[in-house]
Amino acid sequence: MRNSSPTVGRGRRLSLAELRDVVEHYADDVRAGRYVAEFETDQRWHVRIHQDDDVDVWLISWTTEQGTELHDHGDSSGAFAVVEGVLNEYVWSDAADGAGLLVNNVREEGDVVAFGPAYVHDVRNHREAPAVSVHAYSPPIRLMRYYDAVASTIRHTGSSWTDDPEAPAPRSAAS
Ligand SMILES: [Fe+2]
User: Which residues form the domain of 57?
Assistant: First the structure.
């Protein structure tokens, strides 16, 4: 049966509820030992564990103070589930007056977060214990955009056309 959800690129954009189901399904697989995370201290370890036309799914590990830059996911919606450990997620929140701020959210084992394309966040592990999380993007990642938070605004610092949500952020000419 034809699904009525809008199509983007090759596949269908999953709803946020579907994305939550996807990451919970693969988080259960990780807990069952079907996928095993590795840990690297020099760079964030990550591996794609599923991809089809509609969604890609990544298993990511975070050692102490490993984190992303402030970024969005291009046109993709997404979700992530914390399988092990604790992550701090700094989410950019626009205020009505045009100013904004980074809101610090503590995401613990079992937490699931789903978001649409306009979502800008920075995820990191401040704890001694490593963390493991499962991330899904729909449609599959094609573009990552990076930002700096300056006072009450965010400044776009660069973009990468990539299918890898963990690709290194391009550095702006100013940095
Ligand atoms: Fe992200």
Answer: 16-161
